[in-house]
DNA sequence: ATAGAGTATTACGTTACGTTAGAGTCAATA
DNA sequence: TATTGACTCTAACGTAACGTAATACTCTAT
């Protein structure tokens, strides 16, 4: 099932060096390394690679891509949907360029006039709203950034933050036996949501949902969170899902029994 | 009418540094330089820049682009038409990628199966027939036999050689409609003969004749040479035959009408 | 057991600019 | 007229994402 470099390279159409490189910079680490040092890539590695190549095609740097796919907020499905949007934008851009070429040809034939702005339409649109969206969505939100934020704060401020963080988690840990939909849990989850928005960059509801998913999908998070109490990660992710659903279905008028 | 760097940069959406760079490498030299050393770009410069950006968008390197737009064979309208074709191919590629994303999303939802090949469709098509066509049409090609020789030379020497080589072939390609005996063709063939003798092992006239025959008998040569222009191999081999005959029959007294 | 195809690491090369740094230029204004 | 602020220049080092050897180990098939 596992594949060696050459196989992968030929399958996806990149060079072996590229795979080595991605490994070197920690962008795509093969799931396994044999005793003799051979890289073995898994199915999951291929999926990640697919993501990487999509983002690359859309003009992101490897560093950005690394941040994106390592981000606590990263959600594969969401990424795919955004990529789809971006590709449609790209197609529009290509259409614009074709149009510009057609105009230029006509212009050369003396059929029409062209302004200088017109002749660069499509070429200069240096990437659109969705790229922005993606950067906002995952780019800024890396762990490094949180750390950086912490660095810029005084000891007291840090402690304060850390205390409030702790409080919320401890509170939730106490509520582990309750259902994710319960009033108390939901109230605390709201505190968590507000806390994040207050202290870090804006979390959209989508992002918040994605974060919750991460808590059960990314082992690093699960482990960390479950230190507050066995099963807390699971509870939180479920509660966060309920929370986002309720919010989306219109303010807070809905029942959370 | 003439524009300074910043104006151009803002109009077309590239950095000032990019314009400096293009000037440095001789890709886009501003039409005029003021006494104080300011670059002034003309209308024509803008047109060239448009071409450059189109080719860049289509994945050509600056070196390739330079060769293309400096080539004696270069024709702006022809280029635009080819670029149009390439853009349409690119749109197809984008469509394919969108399709792949849709499939992937469905796949994740468990609705459909996907092969590994499928999941990389659109991403890996490393650029199509038209790129090939463009490279054949204007670009240079690799001559493996010569590479060994080139290895022993410095980079500058290599480039110099390659440029002269290119010049000769391009010149001949322009003369394709003339007869092999014509003055111009024969003069250029002499340049070719001298060039070979100067830079590679001594070509006796017999050897030169043999080389000419090779151009039509060995498909690899024919293909390579015809990249400069359809039928060039045939013309050259005929012209080389005429050349050797003339040389052997004593100096240059014979007619070459 | 030996060749041939594949793989690894190391390290320098390359492309297309980005990014200062230091200094001159130009037009409007005080 | 002097000054200021936006603009320009060259020079030179920095960076990203690999390419391209060079050298050495590994695996498999004969």
CATH topology of the largest domain in chain A: Globin-like
Number of helices of chain A: 12
Level-2 CATH architecture of the largest domain in chain A: Orthogonal Bundle
Helix fraction of chain A, binned, reads: 55-70%
Which homologous superfamily in CATH is the superfamily of the largest domain in chain A? Answer: Antibiotic binding domain of TipA-like multidrug resistance regulators
Tell me the name of the CATH class of the largest domain in chain A: Mainly Alpha
Percent range for β-strand residues of chain A? under 5%
**How can the largest sheet of chain A be summarized?**
2 strands, antiparallel
| Helix-strand topology string of chain A | HHEEHHHHHHHHHH
> Strand order within the widest sheet of chain A?
1-2
The number of distinct structural domains of chain A comes to: 3
Q: On the 0-100 scale, what is the average pLDDT of chain A?
A: 75
């Amino acid at each position: 099932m596992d594949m060696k470099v050459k196989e992968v390279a030929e399958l996806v159409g990149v060079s072996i060096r590229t795979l080595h490189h991605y490994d070197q910079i920690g962008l795509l680490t093969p799931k396994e390394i044999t005793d003799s040092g051979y890289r073995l890539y898994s199915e999951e590695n291929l999926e990640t690679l697919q993501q990487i190549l999509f983002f690359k095609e859309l003009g992101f740097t490897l560093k950005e891509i690394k941040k994106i796919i390592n981000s606590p907020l990263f959600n594969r499905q969401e990424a795919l949907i955004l990529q789809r949007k971006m590709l449609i934008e790209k197609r529009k851009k290509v259409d614009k360029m074709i149009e510009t070429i057609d105009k230029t040809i006509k212009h050369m034939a003396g059929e029409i006039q062209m302004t200088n702005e017109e002749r660069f339409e499509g070429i200069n649109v240096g990437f659109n709203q969705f790229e922005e969206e993606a950067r906002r969505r995952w780019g800024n939100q890396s762990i490094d950034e949180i750390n950086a934020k912490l660095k810029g704060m005084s000891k007291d401020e840090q402690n304060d933050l850390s205390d409030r963080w702790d409080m919320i988690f401890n509170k939730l840990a106490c509520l582990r036996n309750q259902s994710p939909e319960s009033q108390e849990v939901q109230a605390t989850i709201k505190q968590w949501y507000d806390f994040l928005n207050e202290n870090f960059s804006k979390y959209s509801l989508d992002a918040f949902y994605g974060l919750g998913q991460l808590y059960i999908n990314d082992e690093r998070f699960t482990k960390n969170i479950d230190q507050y109490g066995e099963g807390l990660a699971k509870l939180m992710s479920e509660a966060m899902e309920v929370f986002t659903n309720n919010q989306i279905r219109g303010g807070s008028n809905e029942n959370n029994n």
